[in-house]
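Bench notes, afternoon.
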Amino acid sequence: KPRIKGDRGLWGLYLALLATSILFIFSATSTLAYRGESLYAPFTSHLKHIILSVLAAWGCSRLSRPIIRPLGLLFFALTLLAVILTPFIGTETNEAKRTLFSVQPSEFFKLGLIFLASVVLSVRDRSKLNQRFYLFCALTAIGGVFVLKESLSMGLIIIAFILGIGFVLMGFSKSLLLVGGVGAGLIALLLAGLLLLPDSIIMQNSSTARWKGRIEDFTTKSDSSKFVINEDNFQEQHARIAIARSNGTGVFPGNSFERDILPEAYSDFIYAIIIEETGLLGMIWVPLLYILLFFKLSRWATRSQRSSQRIILLGVGLMYTTQAIIHMCVVTGISPNTGQTLPLISRGGSSLLATSMAIGVCIAITRHIRQEEYERAQRESSVPTSMGPTFGESPLQKI
């Protein structure tokens, strides 16, 4: 019996993203190094998070198939409880309560939703899928309300994930169109409320006021305002300056100028620093890694015979690829500032750990798929045929 391992290609893409993070976080944390007591303290802290995340990914890649389902349900329950408690006893970060005991629960809640979808939406009877989808949306909404309250962009990513996984499983069904219509109506109502409510009602320096300022700046900007830098568009404008300074060829890693000006150069705007330092090469390299990761997970999903495995693989691809696209759209000025990090590249312990755990589970599933393919081929090769001996490649040789 051969020793069956997880997909090495997934390991390679995962380590390539981490290597990209190590290279550019060292450059982008110059402001943290300047304010701190040690020059290398911000980088070594990030390196510790990466080592811990790699160990978590390796541990998750060793999970056996029977334990993933109950462990995933327990994980969702714990993350749901954490996001509910965060607005009440959490620590305030960037004018919003997003951390609980130095951990950002919303990052782990996204992985919990993928586990929940794999349990609730994996049904053999397709006639029950619509009812299960409503149940999944209801359970998601319980925690999504608390996430949306403190991070509108995170809530939008969760909504996009629900619609994406629903479309993959059901197509344009009535239940998906109903949920999509309700979601679009709520988003439109929320945006209208942000734009129409007077400033006297919206609390100053709150997350609501911050989002109203971002949307107004994005929707009402004119040609002349593109050249004006103020408090509301400071980060977005300097991100565009960083992209313009690359001149297509880049200024070489470590020579960025905007890293000393952008307040969130190492997290929310890391893609701008990558483009500034490497030019077109970095601009293409980063999206290419996420595209390859998405198609790699999709390919494995088509090979799986189990719907729960397919949902996890597609869910991880949809969730984190969507987040990466939103980050890159913000940096390039296509969408308003959302404060979303670049998965596996931006600095942040919670995001790195949660995403690494998701990749580790996917690698474990690829090992399970290969194991099932081997056992299936072994059964087929042991079945006698009435056609006599055959020549050529056996099913076991194909694996």
